[in-house]
Fold this protein.
Amino acid sequence: MTQIDYYFATLSPYCYLAGTRLEEVAQKHGATINYKPFDIIAGFARTGGTPPGDRHPSRIEYRAQELPRQARKLGMPFNLKPAHWPTNGAPAAYAFIAAQNAGGGDLGKLAHAITRSVWADERDIAEDAVIRDCLEEAGFDAGLADSGLLEGAETYARNLEEAVEAGAFGAPFYVVGDARFWGQDRIGDLDLHLQGKL
């Protein structure tokens, strides 16, 4: 069975815009998804990237046009300047990892609920109540927000190392064997790759 390694960031607007299209593609091809939440800011530092606020004004201005444009194209609500960004994305990542280990819910729905909370719902994903709501929405026990924190931190750090090793320098980033796809706008290319057309 084909495995897709999915490197994502709980704070990434582009991961939010990916919605659940990755899950649809994986289901179509009978592929499994190995979710790997990682620290995107640390990833930028390790791979030659620049955090959004430190970028050249031309890049900041383009991002300000491109994100709402992509959201409109996808028919998704979007706030370019959410009330709780930046925030600490690690607690939500730790809860995601706990849910991944526990099983019983929908990880794709959970990833989307977390990112949607930031970019559409004006909620702070560093808060336990928000994380608990996301877990419940995706069919997981809300108590996972308080469990496995050490293991979550260790996995989160390991995912960063694996991302760098796999050549992932942004999020969302999809890896299938030696093939790499960066960005929510490359899910179609991933689909074609899994069809053997790319």
